[in-house]
Amino acid sequence: MKIKLKHFLWFVLILFAQIAAAQEGYITGKVIDKKGVPIPGVNIILKGTSASTQTDFDGNFKIAAKKGDILTVSYVSFATINVQASNNMTIELVETQNELEAVLVVGYGTQSKKNLTDNIARVTAKDIQQIPVSNLQNALVGKLAGVQITQTNGKVEGGINIRVRGAASISAGTQPLYVLDGIPLINDNESSNGSPTNPLLTLSPNEIESIDVLKDASSAAIYGARGANGVVIITTKKGKEGKGNFSINFSQGVSEATHKKKWLNAKQYVELLQEAGRNVDDLESVEDELEYLSQGTDWRNGEIDTNWQDIALRTGYTTDADFSVSGGDEKTKYFFSGAYNNTTGIVDSNDLERITARSNVSHKVSDRFTAGMNIGFSRSVINRVQDDNSFSTPLQSVAQAPISKARLEDGSPNPNTEYVNYLLAKDNTSWKTIMRRVTGKVFGELKIVNGLKFNSDFSYDLLTQTEDYWQGKDAPFMATDGAVFATSVNTENYVFSNYFTYDKTFAEKHVLNVVAGMEFNKYNRRYQDVNSIYFPNDDFHTVDGGAEVNEGHGSETDYAFVSQFGRLNYSYAGKYLFKASVRRDGSSRFGKNERFGIFPAFSAGWVMSEESFLKDNTVLTYLKLKGSWGKLGNAEIGNFASRQLYKPNPYNLKSGLTFDQAGNNDLTWEKSTQTDFGVEVGFLNKITFEADYYQKDTDGLLFEVPLPLSSGASYINKNIGKIRSNGFEFTLNTKNIETQDFRWNTSINVTTNQSKVKSLPNDNTDIISDYTINRTGENISSFYLVEYAGVDPANGDALFVKNTKNTDGSIDKSTTNDYSEAKRIVAGNPFPTLMSGLTNTMTYKGFDFTFTFQGEWGASIYNSAGLYQSTAADYFDNQTLDQLNRWQNPGDITNVPQARYLGSNGTQESTRYLDKSDFVRLRNLTFGYSLPKETVNKAGMSSLRVYITAVNLLTFTGYEGTDPEARRDDISKTSPRVGEDFYSAPPAKTFAMGVNINF
């Protein structure tokens, strides 16, 4: 067929036009960082549409768009930007991690770090993910200046103590307020077996986006009466515009105790006991007991040599699996997640199994109105053991004689041991705790006019806990044919918040942010328990199996807060910063004359680097001075401390009431006044340094003041007393190396703290407990003990320093072997005075390596179990290995007195059992490898990373006890002792391997 030239030319012209049109329908480009390094996996969205793409391994992208369109470019740890589309464009992203552009959650809003005048510490999901711990708080250790985090001991449900800038109270609560997506979380310890549970076990790290700790008064005052101990704001993950993402993470770990004490073996034990008997001329009694403990075996030649510690502490295992789905478009954003944790604890019979789920959805109904809902659910099942002060707890088995069998030939527990054999409890009892938690938030945001919006949030937190303690007929101390004790507690907290936010920039220099609103908070708790006895056999483990329900209790309590709050932030030209906030709180907890309190705060900052004389400085790239002042409250004084109370007192089946507590209509919250001064410095855009000095004065401490017996009550609660915490915080972040293939960042934080008593009730009368004291001018809860002076080389007697006053007023430092002649002294501090954390993060091509060291100095631990386990055979408890260094002959120089059976030679409360707990610990270490993007893309994945990680890998310490972080767990409000080790389980050392896959 003949083709005409003009037709051919028209065809070519149309073809080129179509090709041109097709090319105009796409935009290509590349995304890089400040160093020109390509960034793979960056999300790019055509604004206002669902069109999106991601950069490839070399940072290149192609998207259906045309020149002039707006592209939204986002990536984790980088600032999200909007840019105009053009062909072959290059987009540069600025990293926000540890940078001034980072946005922090400040309560009822957010604020960039650059404009911040407060002191807020932050960690993100990147900092805590893939750390194999069962509780969220432990993942934060060593990463936050001014924040001390201590797990009570190595039990999987172990309570957590967090102190923000030292102790802010003596007798009221000392834990911070936890706020999850605007919901004040219930954090009540509802354990009924003596040792605490940690309610925040119900949260899974996989759903957390960031954690911001409000440390100073300027940041925490927006929470008023509940901010004195600091505020921990937890933000869960949300969906983002762009391509949907599906992530799976799985890890498997193995655990062991960080440290085990060394105990005498059978031969050493027998030799020590025989020597102790001979030294008091009572060898016959000792050997009679050894015959009983050995139960017919050859104890003289070590036939039985039981290592009770190895039975009590076992190898633990951890399984973590979680998934998440997230994504969205311009109108709707979603995040769904689920997680499973199964932890076999290092303490025998102690396990945790937890499932969690979360759904966060928001929808833009119109250009002016957005609504959404966050819902979280969790169920935690804990198999528990008794508290540290119970003979049937595993760790107290170390007191058993090594010549005693753990089990008999038929496998049953040996009932003829020195103390009750905990294996009887293992085989014939169970203690199961189930915690169920639902957190929910429904919110709406209405844009009224340009810059002004209104938020209305309804939040709800429901924590239910059941505990079932079953004892079979062969359980220790069982007087009936079995018993079951069951408890149920339901706690709910709901908050209704309404607030306006106004954001406006005037004349391009004046930036104003104003928040004003009100809040209503209602809390309710209902508790019930019942006890049943006389069971037909051990197959029945619930209350209805018993023949007699012999006891039951029940109570219900609630309280309410009503609040108004406001905050104003103003900045001029990005260099002069000012903030003021105020909250008025009213609470039903306080006396009717003191129901309301006002909590103001002010702060200011000067960004000197924005001034003309520094603005172009290439070395000193950032410099800000800041200061703050404010007042806060501590409302954790109980629900009825101000009330006049009566209690039921039946007699002979007749009801009656007894006067129980005197009321105080003027009782109110403890008040804390805080001051903070700081400086932030940046060098070469590579180094940032922050230094702060803080002082926290708490007035109106809650104390029980004694009353005359004629009043009918023993005490009345009053606000009397003052304490002060002060210290310095330093944070240094450095970008050591930044090349296309290799990056190395370092973060160091250092904190000092002193928390001292300034005044006390009853004319500053000392408040003394078993071995601690609160005394004006001394550290809070200082150790108060007789001073141990070692051993008399001539006769092996334990010696003590008299520390009595001479007639001239001087102190008698001579020694005596009569304990009653010695006086107690302030001997140590249970709280560290210096804390530090060091984190290094390195990446090389597909490899990543991170580790964190944490250290504490200045604190001491009192081992109150030393009175039994380090006494050179004062009785038949097995002894620590150091008792082999006992005095035996005149002239021996040692710190261990002569072994004397029942001789009480140095076994009294003294500094003999007080030890410094200084330590440095390799808290966590992670090594990972991400497969090349080209490889995983072929398998339909966007990324695949495998990793190994470890927790508590190494510990450097001179502490001679179990572990410098192990603490007694049977402490209650009526026994507020701190810094004590008593047969406490050490933390777990965990190694884990895992894989993370994204689609």
From TrEMBL:
Predominant localisation class: membrane
Record bears the keyword Transmembrane: yes
Annotated TM spans: none
Keywords carried by this UniProt record: Cell outer membrane, Membrane, Signal, TonB box, Transmembrane, Transmembrane beta strand, Transport
A matching Pfam family: Plug
Domain TonB-dependent receptor plug, chain residue ranges per copy: 113-231
Signal peptide, first to last residue: 1-22
Topology of the protein relative to the lipid bilayer: Multi-pass membrane protein
Entry-linked InterPro entries: Beta-barrel_TonB, Beta-barrel_TonB_sf, CarboxyPept-like_regulatory, Plug_dom, Plug_dom_sf, TonB-dep_OMP_SusC/RagA, TonB-dep_OMP_SusC/RagA_CS, TonB-dep_rcpt-like
Compartments, as annotated in UniProt: Cell outer membrane
Domain annotation TonB-dependent receptor-like beta-barrel: ranges: 415-774
Family per similarity comment: Belongs to the TonB-dependent receptor family.
NCBIfam families: OMP_RagA_SusC, SusC_RagA_signa
Identification of the protein by name: SusC/RagA family TonB-linked outer membrane protein
